[in-house]
Design a protein that fits this description.
74% helix; mainly alpha; flat; 0% strand; 88 residues
Length: 88
């Protein structure tokens, strides 16, 4: 007999689904032919991003999605890389 999914597995699945959904809505929004349709998709995209953020925040709060701090040296390297890439 199959065991029911644990809460962590459910939230992991929801987060993965939300990432996919927002990716799709972003593509659809970029390809809208009229401003009215684009505005509607932007509204949906915003809602879906909020759901994704809520799920992420809950997982992070429970320690199920750790986000270690970046090393200061790596932050400085990234800043320098992108500052050097700016057009003059």
């Amino acid at each position: 007999m199959k065991q029911p999914l644990e809460e962590k597995e459910i939230l992991t699945d929801v987060l993965s689904s939300q990432k996919s959904i927002t990716g799709n809505y972003n593509t659809y929004t970029n390809e809208c032919a009229t401003p009215a349709i684009r505005d509607q998709f932007m509204s949906l995209l915003t809602e879906e991003h909020q759901i994704q953020a809520d799920v992420f925040d809950e997982m992070h709060k429970r320690g199920w999605y750790p986000t270690p701090a970046a090393e200061q040296q790596k932050v400085q390297q990234a800043k320098q890389k992108f500052e050097n890439a700016k057009p003059q």
